[in-house]
Amino acid sequence: MNQVLHISASPRGPRSESLAIARTFLDTLREVSPETPVEEYDLWDGTLPAFGPDAAAAKMAVFAGEEPQGAAADAWNAAIRTFRRFDAADRYVFSVPMWNAGIPYVLKQFIDVVSQPGMVFGFDPEQGYRGLLRGKRAAVIYTSAVYGPGRGPAFGSDFQAPYVEDWLRWAGVDDIRTVHFRPNLATADADAGRRLAHAQARDLAKVFL
Predict the structure, then answer these.
(1) Number of structural domains, the chain?
(2) What is the DSSP letter of 69?
(3) By C-alpha distance, which of 207, 190, 203, 197 is closest to 18?
(4) Which of 54, 118, 136, 155 is the most buried (most CB within 10 A)?
(5) Which domain holds residue 33?
(6) pLDDT at 35 over 90
(7) In terms of C-beta density within 10 A (0-12 exposed, 13-18 middle, 19 or more buried), how is residue 143 classed?
(8) Do 136 and 172 touch, CB atoms closer than 8 A?
């Protein structure tokens, strides 16, 4: 049975557009497949470990074929635990608001924690990187309040979706489904776009597993 992990990068709780769309997605998924286990991972809940000097030292030690020691070993074990929680799922649902044309820093922190040699990727000096997350599928819900395709540079740029999807493919996840809700909240009525995004989320959830 496929296991679903919802990774939330929004700190806005009930006021979050990305979380609301994700809730529609997950509620629909539970309706069509009530036996499917779904785990929630709020990246803001305080459990995500830092990836600082000790963790970086551990990563370089592993690259060199060495065993991390001391504080570096503790940091490495925290990264391993986070990765195992991530890798235990077969299906990922990401809710990702746009922050300053990119992604919330806590999602970048998560990516930095789990993207480790022998976990998310392998590396060959001649062939380069190889993603290790095989057989997975991801749905990504993107929201932005001002940026939207075709609005011109004064309304921002999109380093959000390209970054997330490039990382997923680099990690080996090639099956990526997306929902975009990008109203210009400064000038337009968002209700029609919101209804469309929720409808797309329901349709996607029905065929996601």
Answers:
(1) 1
(2) -
(3) 197
(4) 136
(5) 4-206
(6) yes
(7) buried
(8) yes
